[in-house]
Design a protein that fits this description.
Layout lengths: L2 H14 L6 E7 L8 E6 L4 E7 L3 E4 L2 E4 L2 H13 L12 H19 L5
Parallel strand pairs: 1-3
Antiparallel strand pairs: 2-3, 4-5
Helix pairs in contact: 1-2, 2-3
């Protein structure tokens, strides 16, 4: 996937998730710069966000290594903008549960868009 395709997907999903009023910048980032599939920094007052998506073809998940799906990671990160107070404190015991819920929701949305296919 190219940066241009990623940017187009971001615009598409901003529309689907009703986030068009946000100014979102998205980029691919090497694994050595982010130790996760995706990372978002945002300002809810200004409605601005920077999303980094791991550029590698495999990514580590809670279930071991799996094929990396940049669209699913993008949707996951955009969902954080809809729920900005959830999953921000990694010391909170519910952090993992919240992240898993956002992840499963992102997978469901992407799969529905693709007609039930991965």
């Amino acid at each position: 996937m190219t940066h241009k395709q990623l940017t187009a997907l971001c615009a598409e999903w901003q529309g689907r998730l009703r986030l068009r009023d946000w100014d979102v910048a998205v980029e691919f980032t090497p694994r050595h710069r982010i130790d996760c599939d995706g990372l978002t920094s945002y300002n809810t007052y200004l409605k601005t966000a920077d999303i980094s998506i791991c550029s590698e073809s495999t990514a580590k998940s809670g279930y071991g290594y799996q094929l990396h799906d940049p669209e699913q990671v993008l949707v996951h990160e955009l969902l954080h903008l809809q729920f900005p107070t959830l999953g921000t404190d990694k010391t909170d015991p519910s952090y993992v549960i919240i992240e898993q819920g956002i992840d499963l929701t992102a997978w469901a949305l992407v799969r529905a868009k693709r007609g039930g296919k991965k």
